[in-house]
Amino acid sequence: MAAEESVYSVCGMCSVRCPILVEKRNGEASWIMGNPHSPLKGGLCARGAAGIALERDTERPATPLIRVGERGEGKWREASWEEALDYVADRLKEITAMHGARSVLWSDRGGPFVDLHQAFMRGLGSPNYCNHDASCARNVQHAALSVLGMGRKLVAYDFRNAKHIILQTRNILEAINVAECNAVMDALDKGCKLSVIDIRSSVSASKASNFFMVRPGTDYAFNLAIIHELITKKLYQADYVAKYVDGFDALSAFVQPCTPEWAEKETGIPAERITAFAQELAESAPNVIWHPGWMVARYNDSFNVCRTAYIINALLGSVGVKGGLPLVNTPKDVGRKGLKKLVDLFPKPEEKRADGVGWKHPQFDAGPGLVNLAYDAIATGDPYPVKAYLCFRHDPLMAMPDPEALKRKWEALDLLVSVTFSWSDTAWHSDVVLPLSTYLSRESIIASKAGLKPQFFVRKRAMQPLLNTRADWEILCGLAARLSDVNPEMKKLAFTSIEDIWNYQLQDTGVSVADFAAKGFVELADAPLYREVEAYPTPSGKLEMISGKWSKANIDTLKPYTSPARPAPGEFRIAFGRVGVHTQGHTVNNPLLHEQMPENVAWMHTSRAEELGIADGDMVEVASAGKSAGRMKAFVTECIHPEALFMVHGFGHRLPVESRAIGRGVADHELMPGGLEVWDRSGGGLSLQEHFVTVRKA
Amino acid sequence: MSKYRLKLDKNRCIHCKACEVHCKSKNNTPLGIKLGVHTSSLPVMKDGVPFIKASYQCCYHCEEPACVDVCPTEAMKRRESDGIVYVVQEECIGCEACIEACPWHIPVFNAATNTVLKCDFCMDRVDKGLKPACVTACTTHALSFGEKQK
User: Which residue ranges traverse the bilayer (chain B) (predicted)?
Assistant: First the structure.
């Protein structure tokens, strides 16, 4: 009889971190489902379902590796963990002795477990903790700060109580967060309306009652016309605006020329549809959620697209309101004590950040900075040399545009370390690869999740690693122990068991490690709490139509609209996005997910395909600035705007160690030459869709 | 037919393929073989909104299954209590007669073990009062499973 048991844990396939229940047989994970006690009620997406295939896959870093050839050449020697950690610690000691602690840079993928990473960097004495967000959500984060005065995650999306959901930069049913998908589907079942604004017909659009296929890069014009209609037709919530909105008159004057007729010329959406849509929104107010976006590193004005989304929510009275975007609660808001932070083991470094955030760019959020600007510091030594880079579960060579240019920026690094559970272009280019255990075979620190009902949750090890990999806490605490001889402070982080870390975190919270056994998480409130808003933490205390903080940095937050470039004859604007079965490029070599979708295809409009003599299913070659990024199949369809060429992100792998992924499909980020320098100066995000490509039949 | 039925609510289905991957993961099914098949059409524009057609097909668990009748070793069985049709792996000789006999060619041949595999509604789970893996873990709970209404 097989020994059967189960473990509550947290998924790690994408960046959502869904709660899971892992069934075990004879000590190994045998099946994974969504945590039945959570709002997932057992549901879990295909990526989450394929976690065991990841653990069993031997085509991932199996033991620590130290480079012996040139960077990127793929010549390694295998090392024991003792040797590899000694090697990294010794190199860090040399580098910091010569260039100071500030010469060390870190980046990760953000999320709920980064306190440990931040503590490690603080312990070292470096201010240069970054995450991946310059190529993801920085524009919406900064938009939230500029309108609400607080981060985007401090408001929730109360889908279940909404009457109208608008998705513009959020493909909610393909970039899957299981709990959110269920909340949206439950709302639709109850009669909530869904409107989708996109350049392409996604799965989300297939559930919509309104679908607006806008010309790529014109979302800002669309939103300005909606604001124009809400104001000129007096469709906004006047009482709410009087109480909570600052700068309404300036906004009214600003959108005065932005009529639906004007927007029609920009977006291609008929003026009467825009007018009717504004009317519909008003009918559902204040129970409207105009989603401000998730992955918004797209256009040069994406910051303003996100800002206008928040502004529309403000005009409809949905910010801070049930059925709209209510404020979330931290433990403190429900009268509980939060987790004790590991970063509090060390004083905050006084040094300025290498990326200029907080001093050269005072308006930006200093938390995770802007890693692309830190790369400039590596290349130029300005404001000071950055010589060591630790990259945790992050693949900038695939997430950022123009990998060859990025490699050149990294040439001045004396040490590049990847901590990773899968092969990636960045790991392949590193000096040292430290193989991270998969989320099934590692524990993580306890995380705190703000929400209508705030909670603590924990990832437990569901099985022992099948390869010679280690957990992040084992790696970082191991390095901390080794650095203690030159930096005695680091001893504080040299924990030798995860239980010791958990107990440190839970001090004075009234929660114990044993409390997680029942459900995998501990709720800190009995019922959802909708908090009345007194004042927003902006300079004016209100929702700011013109941001005071941005104005001080000389940035215009009611920025005049600029019409996006149209592609030259024969060209397309590159567009990319997500699909339910893959995530972030790192699942393309997963046996079960590769089987589902082995390659990406090029979506192009029927009229454009005809022009080029391309039929559905033909092989095409996609190039940018005359340089081919490879061949892929064409998907000829009416379901995309004629100016755009769309492909799912994450394909076109070239590493010989990935037998399934190699040579399949095309990598969109290779089609963005010079793209590291193209970013939204107002919001900080890269502008990944401000690039043009050519296509020919192969 | 068996006393159970498995149904897809197409309005809730988001074409994410979790049903297929959960089935494969739970049943340890080799690459290239699927016991449950989710089909999504490519999107086409219909009334200004894309339309995607979806279906989920696994075994129908027939009342008088042809696959059971033709099986020379009686490895293919129908459970009297609830009508679930299943294969006893140890008794299967991989002759593929069942695949030929099934009007929908539902059973699949596993070259690694020289036997036939098919959906058994995750009998081991059903016997514990649970639902098949594809249903329990369907991302949006678009799949449902239960006893048929008389």
Answer: none
